[in-house]
Amino acid sequence: MGSGARGDGGDLAMASPPSSSTLSPPVVPMDLHVSNRRKLLDSLRHHFAASSSRPSHGFVLLQGGEEQTRYCTDHLELFRQESYFAYLFGVREPGFYGAIDISTGKSILFAPRLPADYAVWLGEIKPLSYFKESYMVDLVYYVDELKETLENLFEEKEKKPLLFLLHGLNTDSNNYSKPAKFEGMESFEIDLTTLHPILTECRVLKSEQELAIIQYANDVSSEAHIQVMRNAKVGMKEYQLESIFLHHIYMYGGCRHCSYTCICATGNNSSVLHYGHAAAPNDKALEDGDMALMDMGAEYSFYGSDITCSFPINGKFTKDQTIIYNAVLQAHNNVISSMRPGVSWVNMHKLAEKTILEALNKEGIVQGNVEEMMAERVGAVFMPHGLGHLLGIDTHDPGGYAEGLERPKEPGLRSLRTVRELQKGMVITVEPGCYFIEALLIPASENPATAKFFNHEKLEKFKKFGGVRIESDVCVTAEGCRNMTNCPRETWEIEAVMAGAPWPLKQ
Fold first, then answer.
1. Alpha-carbon span 290 to 299, nearest angstrom
2. How far apart are CA 300 and CA 32, in angstroms?
3. Which residue from 138, 146, 235, 317 puts its CA 20 to 30 A from 334's CA?
4. How far is CA 374 from the centre of its chain?
């Protein structure tokens, strides 16, 4: 997005709509990131006042992302900004640093000093004033001026300037964020523990401006999912469905990035939870009678979406497909109906499991007492992943395990990406699923504690079924929640849309 695409505040403004979509890429006001910086400052100052562990002076310092080449070649991979840096500064370009003066609240960007031939190969070398105006910061310097600038701005000259650097564990990836590094760091006092938990917590609850972008990413993705449904045909390849989605979100939505690698699984591939990676690259041919599981989401101006639709390739649900699909849909709907502030996400996961088990029990696929199945964690055999995750600038947004929260150890529950109670302003995915995975079914069928619950004759029919997942992005409101995703969900809605009916359906 060029400098002309940035506004100075207010709601997302709309450009002229493209001809083949009901949507228009919105102009994202940069004061969204100004507000994020203000939120961090308020949180830090509150922390200092409450703990009196540190004086409220010094600088927050983050290092932005660096451009990467493909191994030893000069091929530049498409750059995407580091997420914490994007949250605070909204900077698209690589090689920047950003600082916030805790005592004055002033924001400072440090831009890379580019070589003269940059203008020949990569475009205009922009003056520092461009970044000051475009990113709505107070001061801009070059990166090689970072040490001197921060020393000069620090008011207590008799002390070493204090830097709060970002360093902490991402509980989804088990990777650590990397603190900023620069020449002359030995001249500063370094704090590596304060910033990460506070900044992570800032990202958990979304502002109205953030919600507007996430809603747009959902609108684009929902529209693209419908295009995939309408164009899916027996004999196509899974990657062609991926291509339809990617084309739509970029052509009509202005979304150059996806939130994650597309999962375009059909037939038995839909039982592979994270299908679509390099060793399973969405390349199976679509067969008559197969179910499709399409897990794809667009990213716009750093903020993402995460949507899964499941549908029959030939456009008509069989009886067995209807049974499994409706079990998952009922779980999806029960959870969303129960969501509100104060509700435990662990309990929502258990509600989804119980709903699916009750449906399978009704059809004789499993047998026995559902409460006993829950106690033996049979639900995790059919839904081994967690119910959902926080969503924002990252698909798996951080903050799922705040300090003091422990990950459960039981099957299924240990896969939860958060165990928090819901709060107003959270955006969280609701993505129950039911899969027939031999690697889980065989040991569960041989385990004396769980074998009695499985009807092996019925299960044999579903051996190559794959799985169903239904995923929506849901915002927690003061009194309940709002589903941000707008895709056909009922079996009859899906069949009608795949047959060419408009969406939303005309009653």
1. 29
2. 14
3. 317
4. 29
